[in-house]
Amino acid sequence: MDVPVPASRTEPGSGDAVKAVSVVGTGTVRIRPEHLYGTRKPLYWWLLTSRQWTPPQAINVYVIEHVRGLILFDTGQDRASVTDDGYFPSGFTGLIYRRLARFDIGEQDTLTAQLATLGYAPADVDIAILSHLHQDHIGGLPELADADLLVSADEWGELSRPGPELRGFLRSHIQLPGLRWRQVTMEQANDRELAPFTQSLDVMGDGSLVLLPTPGHTAGSMSLLVRRTHKPTLLLTGDLAYHADRMPRPAPPLSAAAASSPTPRATSSRSPGNTPAWSYCPPTTPQPPGGCWPADTGGHDASVPEHRHHRPPRRRGLRVPG
Ligand SMILES: [Zn+2]
């Protein structure tokens, strides 16, 4: 394979249920500075008057190789959004989408092409977890007919409320025929390490991949805690924060109250001394030599050697509620 490999990847661990965590990119997006950094201006004011765009932001997908299956966290932006004139709604709603973001998604930026850089095909994906249902997270859905798609029941409920398109939910690209959606709800968390979170969902039943409720950006947004042996624990945040440097330092677990804030940010309510070190991984994490803050890989970020990947066995009784 002679194309540049736009992925960073941890080295496989030993005796670890999580064999590798990779990040691949499905293109880039420029958004308004007011969107990225926040503003006191009313939403529609800055959206309709802003003349500036941010530098390109990555639109990433996390690829988790677990001993019992291949799991995605988010699915990126659909290339059809830049090639199909009918992808976005028409009229005023379409104007809002055009004012909101400018995408650059090449032929090599599709989910299928990016999974190929890791030696996988979309049919290899067992589970895709959607942090939430905005367009830059659901883009790979047309390619994932063979996967179980996990979304929070609260997020799915947003599709039935009035005006979903004006709130960033494009139902025609989400409720596609043939997809296997599974709405999940959190359970009482008995794991003290998750405090202050009191609810969670242990996706694989082994504590390695734990969904946490982080509403605020949307009503049903979820983050995924990835626990690895001898490596930093990762928190894949979705749009809870657009950049890791928007998160508090030193890295504490998010407070449930802060996670309910209406804007993508988080603050700590606990002293750093008794908090585990979680590395935050937003969807815009830069390609190598970047990585989650402070470092998601212990300094082992690297391009992916060709075909040097662990191919997990097909799933066997994944603990996913139906
Ligand atoms: Zn979003």
List keywords for this structure.
alpha/beta; 322 residues; 6-stranded mixed beta sheet; Metallo-beta-lactamase, Chain A; 8 helices; disordered N terminus; binds zinc ion; globular; 14 strands; single chain; disordered C terminus; 8-stranded mixed beta sheet
Question: What does this protein structure show overall?
Answer:
- α6 links the parallel β6 and β7.
- Strands 1, 2, 3, 4, 5, 6, 7 and 8 form an eight-stranded mixed β-sheet that branches.
- The N terminus and C terminus are likely disordered.
- The chain has a single domain, classed as Metallo-beta-lactamase, Chain A (4-Layer Sandwich), CATH 3.60.15.10.
- The protein has 322 residues and is an alpha/beta fold.
- Bound molecules: zinc ion.
- Zinc ion binds next to loops.
